[in-house]
Amino acid sequence: MATNVLICDDSSFARKQMARAIPKEWDVEVHFAGDGVEGVQAIREGKGEVVFLDLTMPNLDGYGVLEAIRKEDLPAMVIVVSGDIQPDAQERVKKLGAMAFIKKPIDSDKAREVLSEYGILPGAVS
Amino acid sequence: MTDTATVSLNEDQRDCYQELTNVAMGQAADRLARLLDSYVVLPIPKVNLIEANDLRMAIQEVETESAMSAVCQGFIGSGIAGEALLLFNDTSFSDLANLMNYDGELDRHGQLELLMDVSSLLIGACIQGIGEQLEIHFNQGHPVVLGQHCRVDELLQNSVNPWTKTLAIEIHYTMEQANIDCDLLLLFTEDSVAKLNNKINFLLD
Amino acid sequence: MADSNIEIGDIHWLMAILQNIDVGLVVLDRNYNIQLWNGFMESHSGLSPQVVSGQNLFDQFHEIPRDWFMKKAEPVFQLKTRTFTIWEQRPYLFRFKNYRPITGRASVMYQNTSIIPLESIDRSVNHICLIIYDVTDIAVSRADVETAQQSLSERNRTDILTGLNNRSYWQEEADIIYRQCQNTGVSSTLLMLEIDDFRNLQRSRGHRTADEVIRSLSHCLMETVQQEDLLCRYDGEVFALMLNGVNSDDARIYADHICKRASEVCFEPIGEGITLSIGMATFSTSYNGVDDWLQAADKAMYHARESGGNRVSVFASGSK
Q: Where is the GGDEF domain positioned along the sequence (chain C) (predicted)?
């Protein structure tokens, strides 16, 4: 069955780049959200089994989304994809329950590596 | 002059510039944060077409402040040129000196040293970051500190290259633990914008 | 160029360019030891690459402050960013003598420097490159412009005939003293001085001689005032003098002295002394600004003139 993947980023360009970076062999259904509020809503609807989450967003930022997921105990594996790569930011999101941190700009090799590492990508890693 | 094609910017392009800048300033902030051991608050950059008059007003405000508080630096690569303007709005030099571990006297000369060091980092990292994503190698000229040997009113009067409207990327940096607040403005020449838009369109495809 | 295939022959001419280019190129390793030293650096320092190669930068060039330079260079190693120094910060990095006896007007070469990271194949930065630009011409012409601007602004505040401050500059400065009096309560005294019967002098001896008298009087006044006092040629044969921080008693002594001295001293162009009418007004909170104060002194001067000249009159509030 296809995995529901949510890409949550305020930039449509970044959403497209992220979608392109998703490994071709992975059976997914991709959903999009343009800010944190839309993102949380989509996760509630079960569209975000795996979430690629940006940090700097209007309305509700990435940190807010992570907090909401934790508070409502939503079933989502979150990979933060951010341009803010300061050590502090990486630490904060890990504490808030993010599974991994990928720095922008993203490419498919990096995405595959992280997904394999956490066993999300089936059949990968020999 | 055939390069006076009107400068334009559509929504997709604006979004793309914003995202490229976001990533570039993230890299800049990361360098600064590591060097200063302080978290840099990252806002969403503003991408706009700016009128010459707006810039004039921004620079004039600098002039009314008696302290030196602005640094300009030109950059050029692959025929795309522009200038970065770093404006320190509400910045305490003593906070800056603390962060930078600067223990000299904070006279005019000391302030100049600080401005040069901070602007090298902020401007350089941001320009290189944008350049890398667009596969452009930007060369940077030497920084000019406004108000030092370069009088702002003369700057405004003697502009040889009158332009009316051009692409501006605006980034507002603040520091979490110190009274530091500055705006970085990246301004491209009018004829660079079309080339830049081409590069962007290529990414958007 | 970077990804084209460079052949041995090409390296040869690239090296020739490096040697002949008119900017300084220096490559330093992680310990600030010199790895490359191009022709520009050799020519200006008089040190050949063989001599400096492998030497530590700071041992070899004591004019470069280690701490200062490392503040600029360490970010280049650590963060792969470029940094810059400009001549306004430090006139030069390397102390090179000016090498042009005719057109060179500074004693040293002013320099701007770029410090750029050199990436190794593994993308780490173990070397940095200094690019040294000779900006002496720019620095010198900046200095010229500043001197010119300064002399212009001096000209703007000077009376041409006497070399004293002119009226508009005096008024600005007097305003500062007025506010000091207001804020600190320290009193100052304003004198207005006028040459008696000046029109007569002009008519009988000619304008040129009359001008000479004005000039002589201004020298005479300048010799007697203190540095913190403020003197100007106010108008024609009228001078204004702000005695900064001087109360009315001391000012009266001074005014009487100057009145006497002018009448006794021999003014060269006319071979005799001149008489003055001096009006005096000490600061009072009733003055609504410097103009008010001036008007008071002016009234007193008018009174001195009307009383026959060669005297000092003191403004008393209530007098007309």
A: 186-317
Provide CATH code, domain B11-150+164-179.
3.40.1550.10
C90 lies within 8 A of chain B by CB: no
Each residue of A23-40: pLDDT tens digit? Answer: 888 888 999 999 999 999
Whether the CB of B86 is below 8 Å from some CB of chain C: the reply is no
C-alpha–C-alpha distance, residues A50 and A47, integer Å: 8
The CA-atom distances, in angstroms, between B90 and each of A125, B39, B95, B179, B181 are: 52, 18, 11, 7, 5
Closest partner CB to B120 (pick from C81, C133, C142): C81
Backbone CA torsion sign across C302, C308, C314, C315: negative
Tokens of B111: 């302030």
The total number of structural domains in chain A stands at 1
B2-58 per-position pLDDT tens digit: 444 567 888 888 999 999 999 998 888 888 787 777 788 888 888 988 887 777 776
Closest CA to B56 of B183, B167, B157: B157
Distance from CA of B161 to the nearest CA of A (A): 33
ipTM of the complex: 0.80
pLDDT, tens digit (0-9, with 9 covering 90-100), for C73-123: 998 998 888 999 999 888 999 999 877 767 667 788 999 999 999 999 888
- Lookup result for tokens 């997914």: A28
CA C160 distance to own-chain centroid: 20
Q: Element (H or E) spanning C312, and its range?
A: strand C311-314
Mark whether C and A touch (3+ CB pairs within 8 Å): no
Task: Pick from B149, B151, B154, B155 the residue to mutate for testing the C interface (most C CBs within 10 Å).
Answer: B149
* CATH code of the domain containing A15: 3.40.50.2300
B75 DSSP β-pair partners: B82, B140
**Facing A13 at nearest CB: one of B15, B30, B42:** B15
Of B34, B142, B148, the CB nearest to C84: B142
Q: Is residue A90 part of a domain?
A: yes
The domain containing residue A90 runs over which residues? 3-106
Note whether A31 and A48 are within 8 A (CB). Answer: yes
Indicate the average pLDDT of chain C: 89
Tell me the domains of chain C and their CATH numbers: 8-143 (3.30.450.20), 157-314 (3.30.70.270)
Distance, in Å, from the CA atom of C233 to the CA atom of C166, rounded to the nearest integer, reads: 6
* C chain contacts of residue B117, beta-carbon cutoff 8 Å: 71-72, 83
Cα distances (Å, whole numbers) of residue B62 to B45, B185, B188: 21, 14, 21
Q: Is residue A125 part of a domain?
A: no
A89 three-class SS: helix
pTM, two decimals, is 0.69
> What are A69-75's contacts with CB under 8 Å, separation 24+?
A69/A40, A69/A43, A69/A97, A70/A96, A70/A97, A72/A44, A74/A40, A74/A43, A74/A44, A74/A48, A75/A46, A75/A49
